[in-house]
Amino acid sequence: MAVTSHLGASYSLVSAFPRKDVAVRTDELIELLGMERVASRLSGEISHGDQKLLDVGLALALDPRGADAR
Q1: The pLDDT of residue 28
Q2: Which of the chain's ends, N or C, has fewer CB atoms near its CB within 10 Å?
Q3: 3-state class of 25 per DSSP?
Q4: Residues 6+ apart with CB under 8 A from 1
Q5: How far, in Å, are 14, 39, 54, 68 from residue 18 at the CA level?
Q6: Closest by alpha carbon to 38, among 27, 48, 28, 30?
Q7: pLDDT tens, 11-21?
């Protein structure tokens, strides 16, 4: 949802047709953080350490000034 919001595509949260750029960026962040093994789980079901990585991912999804993860 953070990637969707940052890309100005909040309408796609309720759309049956997700934007490709949102999926690509989300997959990039999941891979960057090494969270592939927990990507399909709810945040409350993952370890505290993975929740902290998720927090980092949310921050990166908002593309903070000066960050160039792409």
Answers
A1: 93
A2: C
A3: helix
A4: 13
A5: 9, 17, 21, 24
A6: 30
A7: 555 555 567 77
Position 7, amino acid = L
Given a contact cutoff of 8 angstroms between Cβ atoms, the answer to whether 15 and 22 are in contact is no
CA distances from 54 to 3, 16, 64 (A): 13, 25, 15
Amino acid letter for position 54: L
pLDDT averaged over every residue in the chain: 80
The two structure tokens encoding residue 39 = 């990507």
Would you tell me how many other CB atoms lie within 10 Å of the CB of residue 9?
A: 15
pTM of the model: 0.66
